[in-house]
Design a protein that fits this description.
Blueprint lengths: L1 E7 L3 H11 L11 E8 L3 H11 L3 E3 L2 H6 L4 E4 L3 H13 L3 E4 L7 H11 L6 E3 L7 H11 L6 E9 L16 H4 L3 H17 L2 E9 L4 E3 L5 E3 L5 E8 L4 E7 L7 E8 L3 E5 L7 E3 L5 E2 L10 H9 L9 H19 L9 H19 L5 E2 L2
Parallel strand pairs: 1-2, 1-4, 2-3, 4-5, 5-6, 7-12
Antiparallel strand pairs: 7-13, 8-11, 8-17, 9-10, 11-12, 13-14, 14-15, 15-16
């Protein structure tokens, strides 16, 4: 099957997608589809057009509506957050399959509109919560499903970056509420919210705190502008299972960047560290780490397919490209097969994440009031 691929935007994350796709054939995965780089839509066609043609796109257009009129099967949305809902709704109306970078929308209202328009349609959709596709996460998913550590009692989740600790970093769309939807909680926390749901189940209620430490930044013209998004967020989560957890996201935390997931059950513990994306650590009731056996993770279709696709040590392009590539392969397979592989993050997952983000901001504005997730 030939799949005509189109892309909206050619910024940093789009290039991450393309670096994986350009090398897909060399992995020799025996896939039953081929990807044709059909059309790129960019608001900077003169600046980006030559690069796009060198990458291999058949055509470059300067408007998203023109992209939708081309002979394409899917759209890959790599534009800034404030365009996600608009482009998604247009793509749905044009009967295209959609792969969207996170978040699904700027706010819950936009996300609800998307879900309403999606109802009754049979177009494949996926959101780029790519950390699900880290082998360590998939192993943890299988271990938890098979109750290897018993019933989960609590979890500690953290994701740290440090870029915005530097007050000289200028203002950008990521630091404006009306164009990003939020700060660290949206940018980093959305990934961890998705993993918490994937691994631990639904969140019933939460309390949250947020803080902006660098309150103003310079524009390109040198003028000072107020920052109205969070640098740091902390959530206290109550899960439907009875488990509890803390989730922390920060863009001002140097020294230990990346994400970590500690899950504690009544018969052991699981530890995930993004510095070792292919290895999950498992502990029983002793202090010593124990080996994960095939029997412990048996029967998990998501893990089985992921391990078939994930690049090995001699073909890796680095964690981020590998994660995005495997996520895209799962999406392409859903189109080729007519149904999604188990475990993929769909727009429904994006919507549920948006509900938790919205509740967290409501809680933070109300002095950490407990908010139910409805």
């Amino acid at each position: 099957m030939n799949i005509n691929y189109s892309l909206s935007g050619l910024g940093g994350i789009a290039k991450t997608h393309l670096m994986g796709l350009k090398n897909l054939a060399m992995l020799e995965l025996g896939l039953d589809f081929k990807i044709n780089l059909s059309t790129l839509a960019t608001s900077h066609p003169q600046e980006k057009g030559e690069l796009a043609r060198e990458i291999g796109f058949d055509r470059v257009v300067d408007d998203f509506d023109k992209l939708l009129k081309a002979d394409v099967d899917l759209v890959d949305l790599c534009t800034p957050n404030f365009l996600h809902a608009e482009e998604t709704l247009k793509a749905l109306a044009a009967d295209k399959h959609i792969y969207c970078e996170k978040p699904l929308a700027l706010n819950l209202e936009e996300a609800e509109t998307i879900m309403e328009q999606l109802e009754g349609k049979d177009f494949k959709n996926q959101i780029a919560f790519v950390y699900r596709f880290a082998p360590a996460v998939a192993y943890a998913h299988a271990l938890l499903k098979n109750k290897i550590i018993g019933e989960v009692q609590f979890a500690k989740i953290e994701y740290y970056h440090s870029r915005y600790l530097n007050p000289e970093v200028p203002i950008s769309w990521r630091l404006k509420k009306d164009s990003s939807g939020g700060g660290a909680l949206v940018d980093l926390g959305s990934h961890m919210i998705d993993l918490s749901r994937f691994l631990l189940g639904e969140v019933e209620s939460l309390s949250a705190w947020t803080k902006t430490f660098v309150n103003s930044r310079k524009t390109a013209a040198g003028k000072s502008k107020k920052v109205d998004v969070d640098d740091w967020a902390m959530l206290m989560l109550d899960f439907a299972s009875g488990a509890r957890g803390t989730l922390e996201a920060s863009r001002v935390s140097p020294g230990n960047e990346g994400f970590r997931f500690h899950i504690f059950g009544d018969q052991g513990a699981i530890y995930i560290d993004s510095d070792q994306e292919d290895k999950v650590q498992l502990f029983d009731q002793t202090p010593e780490e124990i080996r994960v056996t095939e029997e412990m993770v048996a029967g998990d279709q998501f893990l089985d397919r992921l391990l078939e696709l994930y690049p090995g040590s001699k073909s890796t392009q680095g964690m981020m490209i590998d994660l995005h590539l495997v996520s895209l392969i799962f999406f392409f397979e859903s189109i080729a097969k007519g149904k999604a592989n188990p475990g993929v993050p769909t727009f429904e997952d994006g919507y549920e994440t948006q509900k938790i983000i919205e509740a967290a901001y409501q809680s933070a504005e109300a002095d950490a009031k407990n908010i139910e997730i409805k």
